[in-house]
Amino acid sequence: MTTEISLKSLTHGRVLKIALPIMLSNATVPILGAVDTGVVGQLGQAVPIGAVGIGAIILTAVFWVFGFLRMGTAGMTAQAIGAKDRGEVCALLTRALMIGGVAGLGMILLQVPLFWAAFQISPASVEVELLARDYMQIRIFGAPAAIALYGITGWMVAQERTRGVLVLQLWMNGLNIGLDLMFVLQLGWGVEGVALATLIAEWSGLALGLWLVRDGFRAGHWRNWMVVFDRVILRRMASVNSDIMIRSVLLQIAFVSFLFLGAGFDDVTLAANQILVQFLHIIAYGLDGFAFAAEALVGQAIGAKNRPALRRSVLMTSFWGVLIVVILTAAFSLGGNALIHLMTTAPDVRAEAQIYLPWLALAPLLGVASWLLDGIFIGATRTKDMRNMMIISVCFYGLFIVTLLPAYGNQGLWASLVLFLLVRGITLGLRYPALERAAE
Q: 84 φ, ψ to 5°?
């Protein structure tokens, strides 16, 4: 576990050592989404593509409500490392696993009202909704594993053990892709096969994750219940996690509404947007590598009360983040059409997706600040700022939707999403000086 946080220790090599495994591991997530879309796309119909897309985004949105577990665990663990409090580091792992298990079981028990609410919001066609429901009824049983893995991932990121995160993601997503190909293309199980592949991969991932963090269980700190249930720490954790949860809910409302509003046009537009969203995820997950590096390094600097190290951590992670944005933007601008053709054989979906491809060049350029500042504020556990700035940003997003969607249709929908990313970066940037002043 890395414990030193000083100007001398903050090198480009250290940043890349944290970020590159995260970039590789995160890149497998949208690649998995692309494979999910691609295997059902080989059926040559828009409905299965839309069903997998809308079912996956609903469950991802609901699961990511508990994304606070990864972010809160990462920030608080990094600060405990900076303060050299090993007992609290281990206690945070125990708390994360307990929260993940309880939350996942709750989702299984509440699946009927959850699915009902999701489909009340969704304007998808009857055919898409029926297939999406079949998909979700299988995948929901992976909720305890999926949510607990957020905590495990955050705990490892805070300790800069991102190679372990890479191993975990490669295993899960590699297994998932292999099962996708077997269940759908060989056995012909369709949408249900995609869901079953993900369910198996999530539970096997939890088993591997527990093995990777086994050192957290070797000492007795993890079961020191006086520390685990310390009221002061629990209150702080509840405050941090509730702020992040509100922020995450609002963020998911924005992205889910984007897909649902696109579904209001027709199934072809829904499928086209789903394909392009996979590209946007690849860009976002690439940037997350440096946002995660910021979480670890900024958190450790805050825990050690080292303001110069905080500033250097921010500058170095931001430099690499901007560089990767330029590279990814160029890659999708030049190769986007070819990727669309790989992901679907449906001519109408191909043509529709190509119309909106230019937005994939603007999104990362205008949204880079929002992704990087998220990592900085998570590491500093400045979660009230994250919550409040997200509220402002979502209000702007609603204004953009009301103004642009009626006038420009799906073009207006994409414009609203890109402007939302820009506003997020601006609002968080305005709060950064206060974050730095507090790091003393």
A: 60, 45
pLDDT per residue over 230-279, tens digit each? 888 889 888 998 999 899 889 888 987 887 788 777 778 888 888 888 78
Structural contact between residues 276 and 364, judged by C-beta atoms closer than 8 angstroms: no
pLDDT in tens, 351-371: 888 888 888 878 888 989 999
Q: How far is it, in rounded angstroms, from Cα 185 to Cα 197?
A: 12
Pull the structure tokens for residue 283. Answer: 């860009």
pLDDT, position 420:
96
Q: Residue 29 in contact with residue 64, Cβ under 8 Å?
A: no
What per-residue string of b and e applies to 289-311 under the rule 16 or more CB within 10 Å gives b?
A: bbbbbbbbbbbbbbbbebeebbb
pTM of the predicted structure, to 2 decimals: 0.81
The predicted-structure confidence for 14-35, as pLDDT tens digits, reads as follows 999 999 998 888 767 656 766 7
What would the 3-class secondary structure string for the chain be? CCCCCCCCCCCHHHHHHHHHHHHHHHHHHHHHHHHHHHHHHCCCCHHHHHHHHHHHHHHHHHHHHHHHHHHHHHHHHHHHHHCCCHHHHHHHHHHHHHHHHHHHHHHHHCHHHHHHHHHHHCCCCHHHHHHHHHHHHHHHHHHHHHHHHHHHHHHHHHCCCHHHHHHHHHHHHHHHHHHHHHHHHHCCCHHHHHHHHHHHHHHHHHHHHHHHCHHHHCCHHHHCHHHHCCHHHHHHHHHHHHHHHHHHHHHHHHHHHHHHHHHCCCHHHHHHHHHHHHHHHHHHHHHHHHHHHHHHHHHHHHHCCCHHHHHHHHHHHHHHHHHHHHHHHHHHHHHHHHHHHHHCCCHHHHHHHHHCCCHHHHHHHHHHHHHHHHHHHHHCCCHHHHHHHHHHHHHHHHHHHHHHHHHHCHHHHHHHHHHHHHHHHHHHHHHHHHHHHHCC
